[in-house]
Amino acid sequence: MIMSVRNLLNVVITSVLIAFSTQALSATEVVLSITAPVPIYYP
Known about the structure:
Elements: H1 2-35
C-alpha cells in the first residue's frame, strides 16, 4: 500500500512538474516573441 501511494505521489509530482515546465516554456516563448525583433528560430 505504501509503495502504491508513493508511486501515485511520484506520478502526480511528475505531471505537475511537466505541466509547470511546459507552461513556463510557452510563457518565455511569448516573451521572447514579443521582445525579440527577429524570430530566433523558424517553424
